[in-house]
Every structure is written in C-alpha cells, then in structure tokens.
Amino acid sequence: MKRQFIFALAMLVGIGIGALGVEALYAQVKPPIYMIAINDVTDAEGYVREYTPPAAASIAAHGGVTIARGFGTIIDGSLPGERAIVVRWDSLEQLRAWRDSPEYMAARKLGDKYAKFNIIAVDAVKQ
Predict the structure, then answer these.
(1) Is residue 24 domain-shared with residue 37, that is, in the same domain?
(2) Rg (the chain; Cα; Å)
(3) What is the pLDDT of residues 8-67, one digit of tens each?
(4) Among 41, 61, 86, 121, which residue has the least CB neighbours within 10 Å?
(5) How far apart are CA 43 and CA 4, in angstroms?
(6) Do residues 26 and 41 both lie within one domain?
C-alpha cells in the first residue's frame, strides 16, 4: 500500500512540475513587432527599380517577414503617402538592427531620392 501511495505521489508531483515548466515556457514567448511604413513616393519608376529590390533583400536578410505591401486603400482619414508595407519582426531590437544595417542604409540612400518615408513599429496583441 505504501509503495502505491509513493508512486501516485511521484506521478502527481511530476505532472505538476511539467505543467509549471510548460506554463513558464509559454509565458516567455513575446508577440512580434509589426513595422508599418507609408511612403510618399515622388518617382514611382525609380522607387521600384532602385530602392525596392535592395530594401526587400535587406529585410529578408535580417529576419523580417513582409506581410503586405502595395498601394493602400484609405478607409478613414488621410495618409502621408500611398505606398504601404507591413513587416513582421521578432523584436524591436531586430527591427532596429535592420534599420541601422549597412545594407538598408545603402538602400535608403537610394530611396531618399524617390520617396519620403514614414515608418512606425507596433506591438502585436497577445493571442
């Protein structure tokens, strides 16, 4: 009888420790950061030809995932530009590392000839 009690107690303790471990790991997962850029393009041909390819490559190289891009449809209010992009990043630090990277800085130097950039970061909502 004592042996069965010890076995049952050990199982309950093991289940409890496992549940706490899973909960602790789940709590450490941070929601991603979304970068939203709304660009006021003054020269569409130059923007698409010179800026977009190296900028997109630098985003991918630094772990960003492009969620949406193209012309925005205004639902309410007004925007400072017409071209929009939404990129998912794992963290604000990852986004800033991309923004300060030599690859993006070179692309941005090209892009500044063709557009005015408006970029914000927004925290995702925990699901």
Answers:
(1) no
(2) 23
(3) 556 656 676 775 555 655 555 789 999 999 999 999 999 999 999 999 999 999 999 999
(4) 61
(5) 79
(6) no
Q: Tokens representing 125?
A: 């909502």
In this structure, the answer to whether residues 43 and 103 fall within a common structural domain is yes
d(CA 35, CA 98): 11
- Token reading at 109: 């130097």
Residues 13, 73: one domain? no
Domain with 21 in it: 1-30
For residues 6 and 26, membership in a common domain is answered with yes
Q: Are the C-beta atoms of 51 and 114 separated by less than 8 Å?
A: yes
pLDDT tens-digit map of 108-126? 999 999 999 999 999 998 8
